[in-house]
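Example for reference:
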Amino acid sequence: MANWKLIIIKKTGSDSKAVSMDIDLKLDKIREKLKNKHLMTDTDNFLFNNSPFDKGDEGNMDLKAVLGEKNELFIGQLASPKKNPISIPSTDGVKISNKPPIDPSGQREPTD
C-alpha cells in the first residue's frame, strides 16, 4: 500500500517545489519520477546532510530514510566552495555550509 506525503524538493541553484510522493519507494524509483517531472537530471545527486548519496545505493534506500524533519528532499550538485557557496540544513537542525571560515577579526579567509 502506498504511503503518500507532500514532499518539498529543494534543488541547489533552483527554486523548491512541492510534489506528492510515496515515501516507501526506493530512491532509484524516486529519481525516475523526478526526472519525468524535469526536477532531476542524471548528473544530480540526492543530498543527505550536505553530502551526495551514492547512486549505487539508491535501490536499497527508501525515500523516508533521507527526508528532513519538514519532509524536505535535497537534490542537486555540490559546487566548489570557492565558486558557489551553498548552505543546506541537516536533519538535526544544525546548519551546514561550505563557505570559507571567518577569522576572529570578522573577515573571510582569503581565497584564490
Notes: The CA atoms of residues 4 and 21 lie 5 Å apart.
